[in-house]
Design a protein that fits this description.
It is a single chain. This protein has seven helices and three strands, in the order αααβααββαα. It is mainly α. It has a single domain, classed as Orthogonal Bundle (Arc Repressor Mutant, subunit A), CATH 1.10.10.10. The chain has a three-stranded antiparallel β-sheet with strand order 1-3-2. A hairpin with a 7-residue loop joins β2 and β3. α1 packs antiparallel against α2, α2 runs antiparallel to α6 and α4 packs across α5. It is elongated, with a radius of gyration of 21 Å.
Length: 174
């Protein structure tokens, strides 16, 4: 792997580490780990803000987007039971019902009898719902592309591999 670029100016994380280094006397403090942690948090917050702006630009509220997004990224894209969607979202059944009611009124989803069991109901995205979700995804993708344009293709590949190592550790498989 290439060495860090010495030509990069100091960022907020560098200042944070410099300020706090001496406060950790007697406590294990690793400058690099602290800088990585702080930078990851700043990137996460930036992505959250740009996602919110993209969603609003598409005419959605964040909870509407999240519900449509979880409906679209399933193994059965655009179709789920309300209980499966609630589990994916980490929202109560009542909370999911409220979300689905609002999305149905907007014309973005519909409830239909399950193809497998007519006593059950499935939620399906409508063409209008699909279009608004795609619009939000395009705006979100543009914002993400602008951020990651700061990296070369090789750097993005390296970063993706490094982050995967961390997520595998979290998932207990690495």
């Amino acid at each position: 792997m290439e060495q860090p670029r010495p030509d990069l100016p100091h960022d907020w994380a560098d200042g944070h580490v410099d300020r706090w280094r001496d406060h950790w006397i007697g406590i294990d403090f690793d400058d690099e780990v602290e800088a990585i942690t702080v930078r990851l948090d700043r990137i996460r917050r930036h992505l959250k803000r740009t996602t919110r702006r993209a969603v609003e630009g598409a005419g959605l509220q964040i909870h509407e987007y999240e519900t449509l997004h979880h409906l679209m990224i399933r193994d059965t894209p655009g179709r789920a039971t309300p209980s499966a969607l609630a589990a994916d979202l980490g929202v109560s059944a009542a909370g999911t019902t409220g979300r689905l009611d609002a999305l149905e009124r907007a014309g973005w989803v519909r409830r239909a009898p399950s193809a497998d069991d007519r006593r059950r109901v499935d939620v399906e995205v409508t063409d209008t719902g699909l279009a608004v979700w795609k619009r939000a995804m395009a705006l979100r993708g543009r914002a993400e592309g602008e951020l990651f344009a700061a990296l070369t293709a090789r750097d993005r590949t390296c970063l993706a591999a490094l982050l995967k190592q961390l997520t595998l550790r979290i998932e207990g498989t690495g």
